[in-house]
Amino acid sequence: MGNIVLETNIEGVKFLRRGKVRDIYEVGDYLLIVATDRVSAFDVVLPTGIPGKGKVLTQISLFWFNMVKDIIENHIVSANVDEFPEPLRKYKDILEGRSMLVKKAKPLPVECIVRGYITGSGWKDYQKTGMICGIKLPEGLVESQKLPEPIYTPSTKAEKGHDINISFDETVKILGEEVAKKIKDISISIYKKASEIAEKKGIIIADTKMEFGFYNEQLILIDELLTPDSSRFWAVKNYVPGKPQDSYDKQIVRDYLISINWDKKPPAPPLPDEIVKKTAERYEEIFRILTS
């Protein structure tokens, strides 16, 4: 997947912000989103990147945006650098494969999370309360079990630290009933369609989060979609309910950081070459499986 890109510096274009993984620029009426090879764990960006990670995230997003455009329009204008405005084309070697020119939408202040399986924070919640984010579930479920129906558990987007889970009623207060209901229904439809496609390729989508925004008063899908950074992917062939599953994501990084007893506060320690290589291979593998 080529050279490692940790930061971009594109001259002649207005730099807007640097997220944990993405660098965002303003290009006239559009935004340029560049997915770097930065990796974060426990809300801290690490000093070591994962080669090719940004390209994998971008290409998987493009694959899914295309697959679900019958359900809802998205923010993509172009992912072909040759079609980008002039000042960007001379940065083709950096931008190719890892950038998207997108519509400048107004993001909704809610993240839309759909869970089809009981895992992660949802499993912890269920063990304590018999619910996930206030949604009552059947008794006797085990870790990683498939839920009878996918559930929608939105969260607010925190400026710093972790996002906060909220109830559907709270999203109604924030967005109004019509928009709150619409994004819930669309999120579940996308999850169901994507799960069907992925399962035929041997992949379970345990859960995922997506974002929406308004562009010219039309609701559209924005940000990234069904990537290893926004979703949990498990291999069908290795799936055994009743225990944690091996995910196609940066779990290798998290496990390493836990093993060295890092206190989860910046600055983060560098990653050894072996961990970087294994993580890069994991991202490449899910990219090949999903988009083949």
CATH topology of the domain at 107-238: D-amino Acid Aminotransferase, Chain A, domain 1
The low-pLDDT segments are none
**What is the share of helical residues?**
25-40%
Distance from N terminus to C terminus (CA atoms, Å) equals: 16 Å
Q: Would you report the number of β strands?
A: 17
In CATH, the architecture of the domain at 107-238 is 2-Layer Sandwich
User: Number of helical segments?
Assistant: 8
Can I get a quick summary?
With 292 residues, the protein is an alpha+beta fold. The protein is 32% helix and 26% strand. The chain contains eight helices and 17 strands.
Looking at this protein, list some descriptive labels:
32% helix, single chain, ligase, 292 residues, globular
Topology:
Layout: E1 14-18, E2 22-27, E3 30-35, E4 40-41, E5 44-45, H1 53-67, E6 76-78, H2 86-89, H3 92-95, E7 99-103, E8 106-107, E9 110-117, H4 120-129, E10 131-132, E11 135-136, E12 146-152, E13 155-156, E14 164-165, H5 168-175, H6 177-200, E15 203-215, E16 218-222, E17 231-235, H7 251-259, H8 273-291
Antiparallel strand pairs: 1-2, 2-3, 3-7, 4-5, 6-7, 8-15, 9-12, 9-13, 9-15, 10-11, 13-14, 15-16, 15-17
Characterization of the model:
- The chain has a domain at 107-238: ATP-grasp fold, B domain (D-amino Acid Aminotransferase, Chain A, domain 1), CATH 3.30.470.
- Helices cover 32% and strands 26% of the residues.
- The protein has eight helices and 17 strands.
- Strands 8, 9, 12, 13, 14, 15, 16 and 17 form an eight-stranded antiparallel sheet that branches.
- It is globular.
- The mean pLDDT is 95.
- It comes from Thermodesulfovibrio aggregans.
- This is Phosphoribosylaminoimidazole-succinocarboxamide synthase.
- Belongs to the SAICAR synthetase family.
